[in-house]
Design goal:
Number of strands of chain A: 10
Oligomer: homodimer
Strand order of the largest sheet of chain A: 1-2-10-7-8-9
Order of helices and strands of chain A: HEHEHEHEHEHEHEHEHHEHHEHH
Helix content of chain A: 40-55%
Structural class of chain A: alpha/beta
Largest sheet of chain A: 6 strands, mixed
Strand content of chain A: 5-15%
Number of domains of chain A: 2
Distance between the termini of chain A: 64 Å
CATH topology of the largest domain in chain A: Rossmann fold
CATH class of the largest domain in chain A: Alpha Beta
Chain lengths: 338, 338
């Protein structure tokens, strides 16, 4: 769907957001390679501003409006987490007020961070309200401009800059594993890959409670639906219709993983790569850990986007089962005199 | 003490080890800056190979021997952790066997990693044996060459390359905070700073159970002694005599922090910078968090070496108090349907 998103748009986005986002490092770990059975090149978007790739798309969307002379009175977004923080910070940096709609069950650390970036957070009940309708209402009330979380060409173009950087910094890759929530990240990355690394396979990863992108890609038609319960709070959104149009034909397939697979990937990143990843952030690695063999990737050189790191230590410990009892604490804490 | 360690030796080391060590990224976090009250530029040596800066000095020491045509039959090291892993890996990469003496109370994850890198680990009881004597015995028995953990010009030169990179990548700094165990890292960094960033203050940080470097620097004479009990297992070694000779006159002072300060710094790195640091690894940040005001560093631009990340998730949870009960787990784990 070159009409919706082109490599030129991604390149323009890269120039537009340079300096306002971090060129995140590619992190490697021999012990991670040993565990996975492939070479693993981690694009550490957990080290991005606001702790997630979302800063790329949000910044691009704001700057596209300002460049076009469409200075909005403010911006509105709906998000359970990282897009919220990204829009809040991008708005503040460009002198715009922001209203963010967050579901009441969003992780408290994500809500606190969104408020810390200066946004007005309005909480809604997922069961009782449709978030898109609520956002429309805020737009009507305030005259602010909506920045959608993924079904938006400006947002996808921004997210695709992560893959552009990875291909520049990591050299040739056999495959690229990307977590899929609504699909903005993988859509942007797939267009970038098709242009600059056409031999690189692009593969998505989703929690098995979701899998709508897998079904959409397998069927060749959009099958978007919201996720069932999963620890991967960043991947509960339905596959976007626009993101699906962009990724169709470019993304080979999407694989699903269990919450336990995601927990194992979070632990592996902590222990072996010294990186904190939130559940959605680790889903690409979980997909590779679980499916490297079926995907024919044993020994291959694989890029993996670690898409975010916004998880509280308590939630991390609960998910990975590394919380300790008082007894363990007493044996771990003091270390005998040298 | 330019006789012991010169900037030329550090620059030569940088060339010698290039490609065998990671040029680690400088990581920033606005939310960390807000917490600390300074600009913080993290030199992320936890993302170094083997998870710690020690890979620099170990690789340099091995390559200096090989360059000089002194190919040893193998190498020996004594270490409770990261130097052990670094010597094990550096030896394996150069086709040399390694024997590593580790105390029986070394963190199990560090021992397992050392064995995974192919070294023979010999365990000793700190109370019953002197590790330096034991190492001499192994040297006599095997004919292997000893690579000391810090009191060695080759090792200090290697460690100093971390600061060279930081000054190149981070631009001007008002101060550099460096954890001190035996002092190899700060000695190398101080010589690098004096040469390439002479206006940058170099300040050490130690657990308050140690503080022998603080006392040595305050007194102007070597006061080395082993640490009392602390969670900072990488900083239990006594201040080295050679490292003290090098750092004297170049390191402004060393500050001490409590184990609770270290735990707070580990948590801050997790939550705000998405980095896993072991206790010793976080000690420089702990020093800055605790002492930024007394040191006159409010608002300053401060480099902080995060020296290592080798801590098991269980130990991390115990130290930071983020282990959760079964009840918390049930509220954290599944997230309601969108």
């Amino acid at each position: 769907m070159s009409g919706v998103l082109t490599i030129e748009a991604i390149r323009a986005s890269a120039s537009r957001i340079a300096g306002a986002v971090v060129r995140t490092p590619v992190v490697r770990s021999e012990r991670l390679d040993d565990l996975v059975g492939t070479q693993v090149l981690l694009k550490a978007e957990n080290l991005q501003r606001v702790g997630a790739f979302k800063m790329r798309g949000a910044t691009n969307a704001v700057r596209v409006m300002l460049e076009a002379g469409e200075r909005p009175r403010g911006v509105v977004a709906f998000s359970s987490g990282n897009h919220a923080q990204a829009v809040a910070l991008a708005a503040r940096e460009h002198g715009l007020p922001a209203v963010i709609l967050m579901p009441e069950d969003a992780p408290p650390e994500k809500r606190a961070a969104t408020e810390a970036y200066g946004a007005e957070v309005r909480v809604f009940d997922r069961a009782a309200h449709d978030r898109a309708e609520m956002a429309e209402e805020v737009v009507r009330e305030t005259g602010f401009a909506l920045i959608p979380p993924y079904d938006d060409a400006r947002v996808m173009a921004g997210q695709g800059t992560a893959a552009l950087e990875l291909f520049e910094d990591a050299g040739p890759l056999d495959a690229l594993m990307v977590p899929i929530g609504g699909g903005g990240l993988i859509a942007g990355c797939a267009v970038a890959a098709a242009a600059v690394a056409p031999d690189c396979r692009v593969i998505g990863a989703e929690p098995d409670a979701s899998g709508d992108s897998m079904r959409s890609l397998d069927a060749g038609t959009w099958q978007g639906e919201p996720s069932g319960p999963t620890i991967a709070d960043g991947q509960q959104a339905p596959q976007g219709q626009l993101t699906f149009e962009v990724m169709r034909g470019l993304v080979e397939r999407s694989v699903v993983v269990s919450d336990d697979d995601i927990a194992a990937a979070m632990r592996a990143l902590f222990e072996r790569a010294k990186l904190v990843a939130e559940p959605s952030g680790a889903c690409g690695l979980a997909g590779l850990l679980r499916h490297a063999h079926d995907l024919g990737l044993a020994g291959a050189r694989v890029g993996v986007v670690i898409s975010g790191g916004n998880v509280a230590p308590e939630r991390f410990a609960a998910i990975t089962g590394s919380g300790t009892s008082a007894q363990e604490l007493s044996t771990h804490r003091p270390i005998p005199k040298l």
